[in-house]
Amino acid sequence: MRPVDYIRSDRRGRAAHDLEAESLRDPLLAEALEGLDAVDDDHAAAVEALRRRIARKSCPSGLRPAIRRIAAVAALLALVLTAGLLLLRRPAIPDTAPVTGRLVADLPKRPAASDSPLETPAESPEPAEAPAATLPSPHRPTGSPAPAAPLPEAPAPQPPATPAEAADVCFNDETVVIAYGTGRRQEFSGSIRGRGTPDSTPSVLAERQPAFRGGTLDDFRRWVRERLEVPATALANGISKQVVLSFVVDTLGCVTEVEVLQNPDPLLSAEAVRVVRSSPRWTPGTRSGRKVPMKLILPVDFRPQELRSPEQHLGTWVRRQLGNSRQLRKRGIEGRVTALVTIDTAGRIAAVELLDSPHPRLSREVLRALRRAPRQEPARRDGAPVEERYLLTFDFPDTP
Amino acid sequence: MLLTDDTSHSDAELLERYRTERRTEWFATLYLRYTERVYGLALRYLGNRVDAEDAVMQLFEELAGKVLRHDIACFRTWLYSVARNHCLMRLRRAGKHPPAPLARDPEDDATIELLADREARERRLEALAACLERLPEPQRRSIRLFFFDDLSYADIAAATSWHLKSVKSYIQNGKRNLRRCLETRTR
């Protein structure tokens, strides 16, 4: 077991014991463990960076030209391969540019298709206005510029992605463009300029938005949120921060061209980009029966841990699930539901006891929302997770 | 090029190769084995990532020359003392105080060897059992769980519901008491 792993782990078991026993005999290790424990940082990354620096320094100068030559050959090979791939794929590529749709994930109630306002040409900035928002990677096989002559009318249609195919993870290693500051939303379409035929760029709605595992951008947002690891230092002052990303779901369903549009903190942006890029394949969006690359906007919220007590978390969760359900309101149901919720040591809801509810139908909706609630952070006593009960109240309709 | 850590070479072998062939990879391979620990040590003394990283890199360059001039019996202990001195020098130059030294008694090493090695324990079973009996209850339990049952500090804390820091100090004090007791019995 390496010391950094020990510091990160729960320090249980034989491997931890062996390291501790060694540290009793080795003062270097003992002091190292103390130091790693005392300072809160990403030690694994720091050590990895140091190892790389040391390895670089020790590379004797006589070897460098050889390495450079090998690298050059490898790069050439990669270039040839991508070019070949590009040629092979070409017939399947639609002759349209990515559609800029705005799926706003904050508003789960609205159906996905109506969430894409039209992008008028006026909103597409001239290249000079949007210097920071471009730079697609040059070797990407998809979304390449269509040739001046239009492609044949009937491109070989790709079969719709099967669920198995959709589960594939895309290989993704392009550059990420980061814009600083907040007021750059109008530049979204900047990255697609110059590609695709101009007449097809604006004012076209996708008939079908890209789907994430059969769901919408909301499901993707949830998927991202479950995988975010909040860097401990970034939210030290207890303020939540929001990173806004844009990305393109290309015709293969891969997430590409991830751009950071709102960057409150480089650590947070890097984490958000990391998770988004690890996305499994989507089902691409279509227009006139053809797959088209689509650009989507995704706000990613980072909340400090203490704001996420199960009470607040579940409260917001249930309120959002109920929304302002029209069906409930039509029946004139309103009032307050009080529930006693038991969260077990794994953070799962172990039991729900409804203490008070104005209507059985509302009770049912609340229970249903609680059943679908994500895992919570279990309560801790002396550092160990314990079962805890929370008294929650939900008002319907939700009046702030 | 080597650099990836294979355990086929001992520290002394790597050092010897570096001295004869004068190729930095050999020393780098050796230093990479301890990078993590030197970094941790530097963190303890300097208290932040930037200074600690700087110290690790500076030590790498300094030591690449030093190991050629010095006669080193055990690289690990030598590295500990030079790295520690380097950090203390940095602190002194910055006019800062070093952290409190670790509570550590070199005379305890023999006791730890005895406790950690099953065969050695068998040989002095009688004396050990008698001395363990004389320890206070928490010390005896901690020592037994740690050395005989191979539990980690956190394991012991969970099993006994003592605080993690108490467990550490029970073991620390327990082994010191054991040493004294064993010494009187051999005399």
Structure notes:
- The complex is a heterodimer of chains A (400) and B (187).
- By secondary structure, chain A is an alpha+beta fold.
- Chain A is built from eleven helices and twelve strands.
- In chain A, α2 (14-25) packs across α3 (27-38).
- The longest helix of chain A has 26 residues, at 64-89.
- The radius of gyration of chain A is 26 Å and the shape is flat.
- Chain B has 187 residues and is an all-alpha fold.
- Chain B contains ten helices and no strands.
- The radius of gyration of chain B is 21 Å and the shape is globular.
- The N and C termini of chain B lie far apart (55 Å).
- At the A-B interface, α2, α3 and α4 of A face α2, α3, α4, α5 and α9 of B.
List descriptors.
heterodimer; A: 400 residues; alpha+beta; five-stranded mixed β-sheet; three-stranded antiparallel β-sheet; 11 helices; flat; B: 187 residues; mainly alpha; 0% strand
Could you say which structural class the secondary elements and strand pairing of chain B correspond to?
mainly alpha
Q: Which overall shape of chain A is indicated by the principal axes computed on the Cα atoms?
A: flat
Instruction: Estimate percent helicity of chain A.
Output: 25-40%
Question: What is the succession of H and E elements of chain A?
Answer: HHHHHEHEHEEHEEEHHEEHEEE
Write the layout of secondary structure elements.
The complex is a heterodimer of chains A (400) and B (187).
Chain A: H1 3-8, H2 14-25, H3 27-38, H4 43-57, H5 64-89, E1 99-100, H6 163-166, E2 177-178, H7 217-227, E3 241-249, E4 255-262, H8 266-277, E5 285-287, E6 290-292, E7 294-302, H9 310-322, H10 326-330, E8 335-343, E9 349-356, H11 360-371, E10 379-381, E11 384-386, E12 388-396
Parallel strand pairs in A: 1-7, 2-4
Antiparallel strand pairs in A: 3-4, 3-7, 5-6, 8-9, 8-12, 10-11
Chain B: H1 11-21, H2 24-46, H3 49-69, H4 75-93, H5 109-116, H6 118-123, H7 125-134, H8 137-148, H9 153-160, H10 164-186
Provide a brief overview of the structure.
Chain A is of the alpha+beta class and 400 residues long. In chain A, 32% of the residues lie in helices and 17% in strands.
